[in-house]
Hints:
0% of the residues lie in helices and 56% in strands. A 6-stranded antiparallel beta barrel has the order 2-3-4-7-6-5. The chain has strands spanning 11-12, 16-22, 28-38, 42-48, 58-62, 68-80, 83-89.
Amino acid sequence: xxxxxxxxxxxxxxxxxxxxxxxxxxxxxxxxxxxxxxxxxxxxxxxxxxxxxxxxxxxxxxxxxxxxxxxxxxxxxxxxxxxxxxxxxxxxx
Length: 93
């Protein structure tokens, strides 16, 4: 993992959130992500499942304040069979 991921203050979190992945063809699916941490630029999490995650899909989640946020999957690392570490960039609006 590069130093760029450590330059920002992170806030540990171990909550489970539902992310909706919207594919380019319009299909949607919901995945559960356990958050490891949040920072002002995005989210780090863990996904356990056998569905392949699409780096090009649009991801959406409900933020703390109830607003719907868009996230982009920017890195993915399979650490064990069906266990993935994820990095999401959440653009500031």
